[in-house]
Specification:
Order of helices and strands: EEEHEEEHEEEHHEHEHHEHEH
Strand content: 15-25%
CATH class of the largest domain: Alpha Beta
Low-confidence stretches: none
Number of strands: 13
CATH superfamily of the largest domain: ATPase, nucleotide binding domain
Number of helices: 9
CATH topology of the largest domain: Nucleotidyltransferase, domain 5
Distance between the termini: 14 Å
Length: 273
């Protein structure tokens, strides 16, 4: 049996091959990686160290772990390599096809893959941590389920300015309802904006930044395939923004299922191979 753990800033994700089944689970990140935390994480998926041939680890401070725990070999996998392999696997893309994998976690990392080689090419500090931090200030919650529900009921233009507001119509390929200034309506006026509209504006801001960074990087590197992974796209509202930007710029963005476990899966695949 093989397993892997990704020690992220906000979430700790684990995957394991149990027979022919790929099992995945997660828990909020708490504390630095150590042997006891490894045992606790694996137990959350019903896995014991004694049943493993090896354990792959990646993310965060995974290098704090020893080479062996309870007789099980611990294999360290670089996070860039794990992100790339995991995103490609979830998107079911052949190795010979160039790909840009965007890991949208607490922050956002952009990894380029050619053949079996992966390189970090860019990124942004804007990500899930940004969304939760600003939500704490503006919505008085960091519950991503609540933020997602609010955003799906809200209108971002309750806080944003659209192109229609600024120039009375579209610009180029962008329609009049496209965002011109994030939170620009609040810069102009002292308005009472609903929690729903604030949530929608926050999700729009974060999602647009990630999508535009990804699209610009893909164009600069002449790569046609973009895959976004990470727990941020567990939120339907974020997925909707990424899809909207994808459509506006006529650039496909792949949003695979179980995207939050991509980096752990990548570490598992690297260690197994």
């Amino acid at each position: 049996m093989h397993a892997a753990i990704d020690f992220g800033i906000s979430n700790t994700d684990a995957v394991a091959y149990v027979g022919n089944e790929l099992r995945h689970w997660d828990r909020p990140s708490k504390g630095q990686p150590d042997p006891e935390l490894v045992r606790v994480v694996l137990a959350g998926g019903g896995i014991e160290l004694s049943s493993l041939r090896q354990l792959a680890v990646t993310g965060g401070c995974h290098r704090l772990l020893p080479d062996q725990i309870d007789g099980c070999a611990v294999v360290s996998v670089g996070e860039v390599e794990a992100i790339g392999h995991g995103g490609r696997a979830l998107a079911e893309l052949a190795e010979e096809k160039p790909v840009l994998v965007v890991s949208a976690g607490s922050g956002t990392a952009v990894v380029e893959g050619h053949d079996n080689r992966y390189t970090h090419v860019t990124g942004t500090g804007v990500g899930g941590g940004t969304l939760l931090g600003l939500s704490r200030l503006l919505l008085h919650t960091t519950d991503h389920h609540e933020i997602d529900a609010l955003a799906q009921r809200g209108d971002p233009n309750g806080a944003d300015l659209s192109l229609g507001d600024v120039v009375n119509g579209p610009i180029g390929q962008l329609p009049a309802e496209a965002t011109a200034v994030n939170f620009g309506r609040l810069a102009r006026h002292n308005l009472a904006v609903s929690r729903e509209d604030l949530a929608a504006a926050l999700v729009t801001l974060v999602g647009q930044v990630i999508a535009i960074v990804a699209i610009n990087a893909a164009r600069a590197r002449q790569i046609e395939r973009i895959v976004v992974t990470g727990h941020l796209i567990d939120m339907s509202s974020v997925r909707a923004v990424l899809e909207q930007v994808s459509d506006l710029y006529n650039t496909p963005i792949i949003l695979p299922p179980n995207a939050g476990h991509a980096t752990a899966l990548g570490a598992l695949l690297v260690a197994m191979n």
